């Protein structure tokens, strides 16, 4: 005897495509796919028709033509005879530069404000809350434009330094003017020179051997320091006494580094007032500073909330349990609270880094030449290739985003609570 | 034997806690000066506050309301006047422009009325504390005030009549208590219609008020829904509900695509009712931001819910399409989508199509917001315990009924904070339209700063715009907290 009803074994009828749950999902999917393909086809045929009407041949060969415009803030050498491709590369590097600077500053601001917001001190907690609400509730583009305008309107002109109305800060090393900030630049009197990579192609770049040497020494120092720590761990486990190693560990990093600096003849090139403007030093333009400040202040407010909620997410019992085990407060923080809080904090933190990177495209409002300003701005206007440039622009941002979210997924997977 | 001890036989009276532990002093000791570090922090914060306020307050309360240019302000305060005190003349002279852009002066009542009606339409959606009658009173008041504002004999009479009606209904609402009213209704008194009706009509009124033109176009658009509804009503019993639904949607589409235009022009030639058309390039200021924000917010929630359901569904192709769309939109900055709106959308559409720039921006901003909304709703769906889905299945509900009655109400409730922060994000992102040349407040501020009179104004102008955005966004975030409290059903 069977109590289950067998599926209807009758003949297949057309209406079963809609009313039989065995076929319905297939029908829906095929209809959706056909609809999607038809939409794409329709858009493509329209685009082809429109481009043909405008007399534009779609293609990316324009990227290799000379760009004909200058980029004032750049990380590699570039001139207006270089191709659009190289201009875009400069833009991409500028985007990554401001994004990296912004992420670091925003994290510092966010962690400080987030911790202060949890302070038992009433007035400090209130001030942090005001900061967070104030910055979160006003558009970031407004902050960018506003800070730019403040920099231009309120800072002294270079000529004011000549007349003595303004003076350089930090013992005459930094000049803050309304054309930007001039900071000392690192120079080497016995420089090892550069290696030119990729000849004269659009992707060429120079690698400073000085920098490589310094990096190598730094990494070697850190590795030595780690080895010293390992040895201390071994001794502690064998004897129960931990040798004092912090001076050795610090020395292993700092001493070789300073030695190499001395060998290379390191000195700082200070900015100096020459004629109507400052010469020497590294010139950080207003647009970079405004963008960097605005992005980090704005994102910092979001990160503060993430940090706060992360710390609050660790239940109080964990801290109490750690105290019951006899841990000191800072060991409790580093061994019990932080590892658990970080699991909550890191994913939204990374998505905020992603937001910051995408928001850096607002650079175009203050004339900072990031990828949107070069490829999506001047290159688009000069070549009239809206379709190709916007596609490339989206592709670049999509690559950055997908890379970051891949990293995030990898992290989530590695710190996931192992449920048994 | 001195083996004696004393045992107290009565309780000591309770004593008041020491003065340093209670009241103001106790609070200060507990919150501001408990420990050396905390005291230092408090003092530093107080110095910081004093420093800020001593600069800010004289700056704000500067008697420059009537100045006509930055130079006049500087004359009032000497050479350094630009920074020591605010020059509020720029706000007095330009606030109308910052609110309305270049919207024709004679027609400015229309956005104002539209904004007032927006609140009336939103109240039944947002709050449940206001009674049905008070809602209609509010509607009458807004319309009556509009009549008075318009002036003219007709306007004043209509306004007074509407206000009178509002007063009458409002008076009755105030004088009869809730219980009495319930008894009246139980004994067969007529209820006022549900105010949701007005909320449903509003999306057709608002564009007509803002852009003007013939009234028959929005009426025709609304009739599309009526056509679809009746098609479903009559066909569903005959051909089955799913086929009926498909035919109803097709009927509405046919009506909108092919018949609305003809209907509108015929009706306009018979009964010409309309407002003077206002072109999109005259839109600007906060009116533009609010228009874009409200439309994108209202449209992105349903689209986002559908996308989230698609992403969670078992249908592989549907899921892939939704994931692709969401990840693509979330992976690119809004500004590139606005570039698409300003330069490319016309290339994607049939040759000769050239539609309004604001409409194009609206489409892209809505798509952008919908992708973010989908992720928020997906979070809510994922946070729901699996037992809820199983319970819905066990009750024998089909997919849509389960979603509508069990899953969505809970998932949306969980995701309220995320939804509202997406709303706030969308509203803030509307300033990006200034980059593609629309005159939102930020775009206007560039124009104002380029003006000879106000060349060099920074703090006042941006401060004003920032303050307005802060008010909107902050009230939205407070509302989300209120909504969370209202919908909370647990007992903690």
Summarize the structure.
The complex is a heterodimer of chains A (420) and B (492). Chain A has 420 residues and is mainly alpha-helical.
Secondary structure elements and pairings:
The complex is a heterodimer of chains A (420) and B (492).
Chain A: H1 16-19, H2 21-54, H3 84-117, H4 122-136, H5 140-154, H6 158-163, H7 169-172, E1 175-177, E2 180-183, E3 185-188, E4 194-197, E5 205-208, H8 209-239, H9 246-264, E6 266-269, E7 272-274, E8 277-279, E9 282-284, H10 286-313, H11 316-324, H12 329-359, H13 371-383, H14 386-415
Antiparallel strand pairs in A: 1-2, 2-9, 3-6, 4-5, 7-8
Helix pairs in contact in A: 3-4, 3-10, 3-13, 4-10, 5-10, 8-9, 10-12, 11-12, 12-14, 13-14
Chain B: H1 23-31, H2 36-60, H3 70-77, H4 81-84, H5 89-100, H6 109-126, H7 132-150, H8 152-175, H9 178-186, H10 196-211, E1 213-214, H11 216-239, H12 241-270, E2 274-275, H13 285-312, H14 316-331, H15 334-348, H16 357-383, H17 386-394, H18 399-414, H19 416-429, H20 441-450, H21 459-487
Antiparallel strand pairs in B: 1-2
């Amino acid at each position: 005897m069977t109590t289950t009803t067998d599926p209807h074994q009758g003949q297949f009828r057309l209406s079963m495509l809609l009313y039989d749950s065995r076929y319905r999902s297939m029908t829906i999917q095929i209809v959706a796919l056909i609809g999607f393909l038809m939409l794409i086809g329709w858009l493509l045929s329209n685009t082809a028709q429109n481009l043909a009407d405008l007399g534009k041949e779609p293609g990316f060969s324009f990227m290799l033509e000379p760009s004909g415009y200058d980029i004032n803030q750049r990380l590699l050498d570039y001139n207006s005879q270089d191709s659009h491709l190289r201009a875009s590369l400069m833009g991409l590097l500028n985007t990554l530069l401001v994004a990296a600077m912004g992420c670091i500053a925003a994290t510092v601001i966010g962690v400080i404000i987030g911790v202060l917001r949890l302070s038992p001190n009433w007035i400090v907690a209130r001030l942090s809350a005001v900061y967070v609400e104030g910055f979160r509730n006003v558009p970031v583009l407004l902050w960018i434009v506003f800070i730019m305008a403040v920099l231009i309107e309120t800072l002294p002109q270079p000529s004011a330094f000549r007349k003595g109305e303004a003076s350089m800060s930090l013992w005459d090393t930094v000049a803050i003017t309304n054309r930007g900030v001039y900071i000392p630049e690192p120079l080497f009197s016995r420089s090892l020179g550069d290696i030119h990579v990729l000849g004269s192609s659009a992707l060429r770049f120079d690698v400073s051997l000085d920098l490589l040497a310094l990096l190598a020494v730094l990494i070697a120092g850190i590795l030595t320091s780690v080895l010293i720590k390992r040895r201390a761990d071994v001794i502690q486990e064998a004897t129960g006494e931990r040798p004092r190693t912090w001076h050795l560990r610090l020395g292993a990093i700092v001493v070789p580094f300073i030695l190499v600096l001395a060998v290379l003849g390191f000195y700082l090139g200070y900015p100096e007032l020459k004629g109507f403007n400052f010469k020497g030093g590294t010139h950080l333009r207003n647009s970079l500073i405004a963008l960097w400040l605005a992005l980090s202040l704005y994102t910092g407010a979001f990160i503060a909330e993430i940090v706060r909620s992360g710390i609050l997410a660790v239940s109080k019992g964990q801290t109490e349990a750690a105290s019951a085990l006899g841990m000191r407060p800072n060991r409790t923080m580093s061994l019990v609270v932080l590892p658990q809080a970080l699991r909550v904090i890191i994913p939204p933190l990374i998505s905020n880094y992603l937001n910051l990177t995408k928001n850096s495209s607002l650079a175009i409002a203050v004339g900072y030449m990031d990828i949107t300003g070069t490829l999506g701005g001047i290159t688009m206007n000069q070549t009239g290739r809206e379709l190709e440039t916007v596609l490339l622009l989206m592709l670049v941002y999509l690559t950055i985003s997908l890379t970051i979210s891949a990293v995030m997924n990898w992290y989530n997977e590695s710190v996931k609570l192992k449920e048994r | 034997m001195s083996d004696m001890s004393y045992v107290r036989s009565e309780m000591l009276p309770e004593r008041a806690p020491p003065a340093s532990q209670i009241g103001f002093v106790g609070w200060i000791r507990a919150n501001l000066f408990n420990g050396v570090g905390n005291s230092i922090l408090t003092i530093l914060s107080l110095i910081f506050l004093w420093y800020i306020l001593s600069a800010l307050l004289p700056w704000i309360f500067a008697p420059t309301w009537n100045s006509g240019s930055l130079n006049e302000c500087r004359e009032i305060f000497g050479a350094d006047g630009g920074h020591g005190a605010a020059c509020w003349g720029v706000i007095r002279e330009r606030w109308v422009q910052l609110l309305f852009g270049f919207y024709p002066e004679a027609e400015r009542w229309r956005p104002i009325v539209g904004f007032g009606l927006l609140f009336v339409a939103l109240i039944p959606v947002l709050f449940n504390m206001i009674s049905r009658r008070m809602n209609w009173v509010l509607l009458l008041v807004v319309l009556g005030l509009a009549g008075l504002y318009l002036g003219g004999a007709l306007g004043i009479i209509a306004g007074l009549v509407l206000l009178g009606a509002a007063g009458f209904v409002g008076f009755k609402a105030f004088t009869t208590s809730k219980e009495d009213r319930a008894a009246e209704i139980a004994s067969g008194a007529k209820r006022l219609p549900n105010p949701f009706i007005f909320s449903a009509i509003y999306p057709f009124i608002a564009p007509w008020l803002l852009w003007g033109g013939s009234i028959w176009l929005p009426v025709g658009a609304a009739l599309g829904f009526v056509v679809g509804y009746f098609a479903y009503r009559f066909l569903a019993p005959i051909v089955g509900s799913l086929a009926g639904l498909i035919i109803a949607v097709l009927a509405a589409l046919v009506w909108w695509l092919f018949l609305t235009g003809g209907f509108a022009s015929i009706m306009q030639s018979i009964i010409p009712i309309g407002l003077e058309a206002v072109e999109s390039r005259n839109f600007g200021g906060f009116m533009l931001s609010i228009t874009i924000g409200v439309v994108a917010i209202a449209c992105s929630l349903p689209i986002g819910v559908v996308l989230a359901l698609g992403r969670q569904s078992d249908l592989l192709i549907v899921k892939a399409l939704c994931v692709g769309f969401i990840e693509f939109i979330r992976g690119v900055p809004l500004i590139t989508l606005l570039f698409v709106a300003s330069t490319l959308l016309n290339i994607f559409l049939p040759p000769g199509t050239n539609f309004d720039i604001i409409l194009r921006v609206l489409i892209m901003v809505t798509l952008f917001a919908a992708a973010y909304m989908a992720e928020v709703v997906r979070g809510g769906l994922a946070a729901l315990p699996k037992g809820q889905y199983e319970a819905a299945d066990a009750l024998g509900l089909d997919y849509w009924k389960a979603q509508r009655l069990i899953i969505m109400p809970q998932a949306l409730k969980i995701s309220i904070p995320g939804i509202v922060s997406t709303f706030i994000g969308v509203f803030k992102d509307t300033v990006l339209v200034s980059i593609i040349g629309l005159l939102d407040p930020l775009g206007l501020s560039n124009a104002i700063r380029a003006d000879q009179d106000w060349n060099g104004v920074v703090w006042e102008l941006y401060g004003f715009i920032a303050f307005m955005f802060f008010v909107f966004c902050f009230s939205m975030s407070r509302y989300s907290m209120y909504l969370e409290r209202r919908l909370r059903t647990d007992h903690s």
